[in-house]
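Intended use. Records like the one below are meant for learning the mapping from a protein sequence to its folded structure. Do not use them to infer anything beyond what is encoded.
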Amino acid sequence: MRNIALSNEKKAGKKVNITVSEISGRLVGEGAQRYISEASCVIRKYGKWKAPKWGKLPKDDRDQLLRITNNSFTYDGGEHVKLALIKQLNSQYRSRRYNFHMLFKKCGSKEEALARRPEYVEESDWIYLCDYYCSPEFKALSERNKLNRSKQQTAHTAGTKSFLRHKDDRISKCVK
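Structure written out for the chain above:
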């Protein structure tokens, strides 16, 4: 579901301020979750999927996604802020691709997957993704990542919020 509070602020012509930690380069503060939600909506609606990963998307496509997402936000800061916003878009892009892969895996064959294209994904993009998921390159990458994940000793248990956002929330509560 779209972020209703952000939608109402957009209609009123207000922009949400976002803060980026200079230490970690991560979004923190009250506007962080709104930015994350907006980035997810923008990636879903305008994302292009004919690239194996975010870094391989044409720069113009990445810049357009950043411009669309940033329309509702204000921020102070330099290059570290822009890098944090790009990093967040990259994360949302990876998450969406992961969801596409999970949908692909639920299908018994490539043909069945092609027939179950999500309505918000262009047909040519879905064909590219299905071909990519069947490629030896992707299968090797998938196996390598599966092996690496099995070696991890501890799991992140803070939910979808980063540790830094949890810390920032606790500090904000103490100050108020």
